[in-house]
Design a protein that fits this description.
The structure holds 2 protein chains of 2 kinds. By secondary structure, chain A is an alpha+beta fold. Chain A contains 16 helices and 22 strands. Among the domains of chain A are: about 90 residues, Ubiquitin-like (UB roll) (Roll), CATH 3.10.20; about 220 residues, Rossmann fold (3-Layer(aba) Sandwich), CATH 3.40.50.740. In chain A, the strands form 6 sheets. Chain A has a 7-stranded mixed β-sheet with strand order 14-13-19-18-17-15-16, with helices on both faces. In chain A, strands 2-1-5-3-4 form a 5-stranded mixed β-sheet, sandwiched between helices. In chain A, strands 10-11-12 form a 3-stranded antiparallel β-sheet. In chain A, helix 12 links the parallel strand 17 and strand 18. Chain A is elongated, with a radius of gyration of 26 Å. The two termini of chain A are about 30 Å apart. In chain B, the strands form 2 sheets. In chain B, strands 2-3-5 form a 3-stranded antiparallel β-sheet. In chain B, strands 1-4 form a two-stranded antiparallel ribbon. Classes of the chains: A alpha+beta, B alpha+beta.
């Protein structure tokens, strides 16, 4: 540990870190474009200049390592002037087309301009103009807006190692260009470059002119695609407007970082999975009994009545959160029913598979930790009562067949799912389940990390959490998590303890 | 805290009649004053027959979408007006103009631009927010519709609105 002084205050820091990392750790804001925690240090944007005592010129915070007794000033007059100068240079050839830029509202250049510069341009000559190109099926490139931080170039050369983008020409004529559009089409991680672009130079074709970012609400959630448990931000349309009734529609999914998991990017499969959740047509809107819609109260009393049998079965789902699954488990334990778990759907990994897992369900680990028997171990399938939890997504095809036969053979079968599937069609009662963005839920990923997905929108239609339908005496999801942690894992756990980065088992 | 004023009426006030006559005198005097002024000089305009002509330029009436001399819309569908609108009266659907011309850099234009005139409160915030000077409120005040659907006007009607001062 060494001592450094930042803005006349002493801090104990680890040796070998850069000034920017140290400042970030202590909550001191240093503006930057080219620095990214997962990428190599480039030091070419010059935005992170700070004053270091004893040095003749301001130093780049992202590439200067701290040393003992270093005195750093992040807000002195020299630094302010340097930032102003850098921003003026960047904006020399930047089109001020914020009204049509999709990044505006979350653009770093816009934010820093208002915060550190806010001066008129002194440039008199016509600005250099390039054509906007759709460089792949997923991504467009507007070279005019580029600030040449080369984050995208470094991402494609260091993380995916596919080298599709590069800078060409020299000096002020430099621009980014795509050398292999076909490879970019097939790259399963290519869309990350639109997230890491600090300005609006790279963007998703899907999101182009679709929604202004200030009409969306950012909700931190866990990706439902596989058991890697990537942290994502789900942007939900929150414009309460009667003229366009697209409220609570998921607009896009983008990366949220989780340093504990070492995850800074997400795969394209997860990114574009939001369309599955926007399918309002096939959503189960109300409880359906044999093709007839019934009220929630009727459904609750019906389950109570029908579950009053000796031989019942509850089949949990790796696609649902801990809270939903444990509510079903408690329901089964109270009545002495059998509990089984289906196997997850598996899909071959692409090459390279950076943060994709083979098992295509977010909560497979939880059911494994509970040591439940698999559905293939069901011996007799003629139960009096069967409850199955299902969600958007797939389970293993062998389990699927087994569960379908159980549902068909049972005297009374209940399926809890958000979107009507083959299971719902073969069940007596279908309960409307919320999708992941409508409820607080925790998931255990393949690396045994318990992470929380946040509630972003209200329960749609008449969907309710399972503990409400099963009439278990709980007030919130958090209580269920606490009960699960205490009974199954022998630890005290609540949402506070999970924090933003999760809790490692 | 509400103050309660202690009002004491004397005998003269309590009979009320003097106050009634005083009031009636003012009313009747105005009646005769108006009766003997020619209609063109009266303060009240008999609206459908006569129309107010000297409407100030800052009057906030029917909206207009401005165009460039070559007829293309100035609007770039940036949603600034829709964001500023306190009544949520503006609905925009953007369109991607693929032909990005070097001299005329325009990538985005509204495919649908609707103003719900029933919702609009004519506050002029849209005009204020517009970065392209595309939407303005003119001084046309006769905004009448025979159905609710007719009150939702689109681009074609909006560019037809006449500028201030006729034309």
């Amino acid at each position: 540990m060494i001592t450094v002084k930042i803005n006349d205050r002493e801090y104990q820091v680890e040796e070998g870190k850069t000034i920017l990392e140290v400042a970030k750790e202590f909550g001191i804001d240093i503006p930057h474009y080219c620095y990214h925690p997962a990428l190599s240090i480039a030091g070419n944007c010059r935005m992170c200049l700070v004053e270091v005592k004893g040095m003749p010129k301001p130093m780049t915070a992202c590439s200067t390592r701290v040393s003992d007794g270093m005195e750093i000033y992040t807000d002195s007059e020299i630094v302010k002037e340097a930032r102003k100068g850098v921003l003026e240079f960047i904006l020399l050839d930047h089109p001020v087309d914020c009204p049509i830029c999709d990044k505006s509202g979350e653009c770093k250049l816009q934010d820093y301009y208002f915060k550190y510069s806010a001066q008129r341009s002194r440039y008199e000559f016509p600005k250099e103009r390039h054509k906007v190109q759709k460089i792949s099926k997923k991504i467009y490139l507007n070279p005019n807006r580029c600030v040449l931080c080369t984050r995208c170039v470094r991402f494609l050369s260091e993380i995916t190692k596919t080298f599709e983008l590069t800078t060409v020409e020299r000096g002020s004529h430099t621009y980014i260009t795509c050398v292999d559009p076909e490879s970019l089409d097939n790259n399963p991680f290519a869309s990350n470059i639109s997230d890491i672009c600090p300005v609006g130079a790279l963007g998703l074709n899907e999101f182009r002119f679709k929604k202004r970012v200030w009409f969306t609400k950012k909700v931190k959630a866990i990706c439902q695609g596989c058991s890697a448990g990537c942290n994502i931000y789900v942007d939900v349309s929150n414009r309460k407007q009667l003229l366009d009734g697209d409220d609570d529609e998921i607009v896009r999914i983008h990366t949220a970082e989780n340093p504990k998991l070492g995850q800074y990017f997400i795969c394209d499969e997860g990114r574009y999975s939001y369309k599955l959740y926007n399918d309002r047509e096939s959503r189960v809107k109300v409880p359906v009994l044999e093709g007839e819609e019934i009220t929630v109260e009727n459904a609750v009393s019906l389950i109570k009545e029908k579950a009053n049998v000796r031989k019942g079965v509850v089949i949990l789902s790796p696609l649902h959160s801990i809270e939903e699954n444990y509510a079903a488990y408690l329901f089964a334990r109270e009545r002495g029913f059998d509990v089984f778990r289906p196997s997850s759907f598996r899909k071959d990994l692409p090459e390279p598979a950076l943060f994709i897992e083979e098992k295509k369900s977010p909560n497979d680990r939880m059911l494994k930790l509970m040591k439940l028997p698999k559905v293939s171990e069901i011996e007799e399938i003629d139960y009096d009562f069967a409850l199955f939890l299902h969600n958007v997504g797939k389970i293993h095809s062998k389990s699927e067949v087994r569960i379908l036969s159980v549902l068909k053979k049972s005297t009374f079968s209940v399926v809890f799912e958000p979107v009507l599937s083959e299971f719902g069609r073969n069940a007596n009662l279908v309960l409307p389940a919320p999708i992941f963005i409508e409820e607080n839920g925790c998931y255990i990923n393949a690396k045994n990390l318990v992470q929380r997905s946040h509630k972003g929108v209200d329960y749609m239609y008449l969907s309710k959490p399972l503990w409400f339908f099963l009439d278990i005496n709980f007030k919130s999801e958090e209580e269920l998590l606490a009960v699960f942690a205490k009974e199954q894992l022998n630890i005290e756990l609540d949402y506070n303890r999970l924090g933003t980065e999760g809790f490692e088992l | 805290m509400a103050l309660k004023k202690d009002v004491r009426l004397n005998w003269w006030d309590k009979i009320y009649l003097p106050a009634v006559f005083k009031g009636m005198y003012i009313t009747i005097s105005h009646f005769f004053k108006t009766l003997f002024t020619p209609p063109s000089k009266r303060y009240t305009i008999e609206y459908p027959d006569r129309k107010k002509e000297d409407i100030p330029e800052w009057y906030r009436g029917l909206h207009r979408l401005n165009t460039y001399p070559d007829g293309t819309l100035k609007c770039v569908a940036c949603y600034c007006c829709a964001t500023a609108c306190p009544a949520d009266a503006i609905y925009i659907e953007p369109e991607d103009l693929e032909d990005f011309d070097k001299d005329h850099p325009k990538e985005k234009a509204p495919k649908v631009f609707q103003i719900d005139l029933h919702r609009c409160i004519y506050c002029g915030f849209c005009e204020e927010a517009c970065p392209k000077d595309a939407i303005v409120l003119t001084n046309h005040y006769e905004i009448v519709h025979t159905s609710r659907e007719a009150g939702i006007i689109g681009i074609e009607d909006l560019i037809k609105t006449k500028r201030e001062g006729g034309e």
